[in-house]
From TrEMBL:
Entry GO terms, CC: plasma membrane
Protein's membrane topology: Multi-pass membrane protein
Residue ranges, annotated region (Disordered): 154-174
Keywords, comma-separated and alphabetical: Cell membrane, Membrane, Transmembrane, Transmembrane helix
Name of the protein: DUF421 domain-containing protein
Keyword Metal-binding appears in the UniProt entry: no
Transmembrane portions of the chain: 6-27, 39-58, 64-84
Family affiliation: Belongs to the UPF0702 family.
UniProt domain YetF C-terminal: residue ranges: 87-156
InterPro entries, sorted: DUF421, UPF0702_alpha/beta_dom_sf
Organism: Halobacillus litoralis
Localization in the cell: Cell membrane
Length: 174
């Protein structure tokens, strides 16, 4: 139950010594995006890579080359998806979704909050975490595609708005 043989322990150690550098190399090849703040697809790929590495290390039936092929396939798919995301708005909205306006000009956008399952106290917490004391200083709060909150404060310099691609910005509704 706790120990089968030294051979199985040695095999796990050897597989780890072989897989670890391969994972590092594959992640370096795939680019920084693989390790960036995660949207839904990035999270799924990260979990799948972790599960694949664990299976490679612990299963006596998975050979090293099979494991590398599985890891390479997952990382290639992640690369292909991000490549398509950069080139297609339709594909991006399918994989990533759109940022959602939750508060605008001091007013909570109730329909958006319900849709995104966000409570008012979570929005206030996001505002506090940005060091903003007064809700009157807040122009908008946006739920980003990676699940983080962006808090935009009122400014005196009206330039291009960072809110132009945010869902609900066209006509905020309560």
């Amino acid at each position: 139950m706790f120990f089968d043989s030294w051979i199985s322990v040695f095999k796990i150690i050897m597989m780890a010594l072989l897989i670890y550098p391969a994972v590092i190399l594959l992640l370096r090849i795939s680019g920084k995006r693989t390790l960036s703040k995660m949207n839904m697809f990035d999270l799924v790929i990260t979990v799948a890579i972790g599960s694949t590495v664990a299976t490679i290390l612990l299963s006596s039936q998975v050979k090293w080359l099979d494991g590398i092929a599985a890891l390479s396939s997952l990382i290639f798919l992640q690369y292909a998806v991000t490549w398509l995301e950069v080139r297609s708005k339709t594909f991006t909205s399918f994989v990533k979704g759109e940022p959602q306006l939750l508060m605008y000009q001091g007013e909570m956008v109730e329909t958006a909050m319900k849709k995104e399952r966000v409570k008012a106290d979570e929005i206030r917490q996001a505002i506090r975490s940005q060091g903003v004391y007064s809700l009157g200083r807040v122009k908008a709060v946006v739920l980003e595609t990676d699940g983080s909150f962006s808090v935009i404060t009122k400014e005196t310099d009206p330039g291009d708005s960072s809110l132009k691609d945010v869902d609900g910005m066209q006509a905020p509704k309560k």
